[in-house]
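Q: Given only this backbone (272 positions), what sequence would you predict?
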């Protein structure tokens, strides 16, 4: 069977630590060596890529429908500077074996893109490229009064600082390549109080934060959800006062971030 043109895909990250999606590449591959067409022996090469650990733990897992050869992984910043360039040789592994490729990078280096070139044993390969539009916004958390979702005046400078970072991230998408960018705001509590009460309180606080960003001119859709005590940053016993668990996440992404540990499917609400 003649070799088909190389498969290049630009696929968007769904989550820093959060997405466990397997992505299947089309059944097309190119033979190493350029324009001369070769013969693909055996079944057509297909790949699956698990990118759920890419942004936080810095590894990806690949499965190939044919016995693998070398896999090259290149990580770049948004400006195109290379963070890591890794080649792993999996020759001898069987088809469909889990192939894990790791890389090292500084935690303060945001990933702009990851590209993969995945060779089978016969030197046919598939290329895939991923752009990292899942951007957590670093911020200082607003302190709410007990059982209140009202934003007090002394807390506003924290939100203004976060707003500047949101605007900075959005300014980088000058070509509007990502059409569905949304600011997601997830509210969380500690374990003091009942589960139901914490769920309602975290939702009300996330809504207040979302409304504040809308009133300040954030033009992209804004979605909010409350997770109560279901996604703790610090694991504690019940009824433990822990400030690190009383927080909100601000995330810019073009698909809803699945919240690991929530135990349910979030119902992201939108502010107008």
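A: Predicted residues:
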């Amino acid at each position: 069977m003649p070799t088909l043109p190389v498969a290049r895909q630009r696929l968007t990250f769904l989550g820093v630590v959060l997405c466990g999606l397997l992505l299947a590449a089309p059944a097309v591959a190119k033979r190493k060596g350029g324009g001369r067409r070769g013969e693909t022996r055996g079944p057509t090469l297909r790949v699956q890529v698990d990118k759920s650990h890419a942004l936080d733990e810095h590894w990806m897992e690949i499965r190939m429908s044919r016995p693998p050869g070398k896999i090259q992984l290149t990580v770049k910043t948004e400006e195109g500077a290379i963070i890591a360039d890794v080649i792993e040789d999996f020759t001898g592994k069987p088809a469909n074996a889990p192939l894990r490729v790791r890389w090292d990078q500084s935690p303060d280096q945001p990933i702009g893109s990851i590209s993969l070139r995945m060779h089978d044993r016969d030197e046919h390969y598939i290329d895939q490229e991923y752009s990292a539009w899942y951007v957590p916004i670093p911020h200082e958390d607003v302190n709410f009064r007990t059982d209140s979702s009202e934003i007090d005046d002394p807390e506003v400078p924290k939100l203004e600082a976060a707003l500047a970072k949101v605007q900075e991230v959005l300014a980088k998408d000058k070509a509007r390549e990502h059409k569905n960018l949304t600011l997601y705001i997830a509210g969380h509590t500690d374990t003091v109080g009942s589960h139901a009460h914490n769920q309602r309180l975290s939702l009300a606080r996330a809504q207040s934060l979302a409304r504040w960003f809308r009133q300040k001119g954030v033009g992209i859709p804004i979605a909010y959800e409350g997770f109560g005590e279901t996604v703790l940053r610090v694991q504690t016993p019940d009824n433990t006062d822990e400030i690190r668990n009383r927080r909100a996440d601000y995330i810019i992404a073009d698909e809803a971030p699945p919240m690991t540990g929530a135990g349910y499917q979030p119902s992201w609400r939108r502010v107008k």
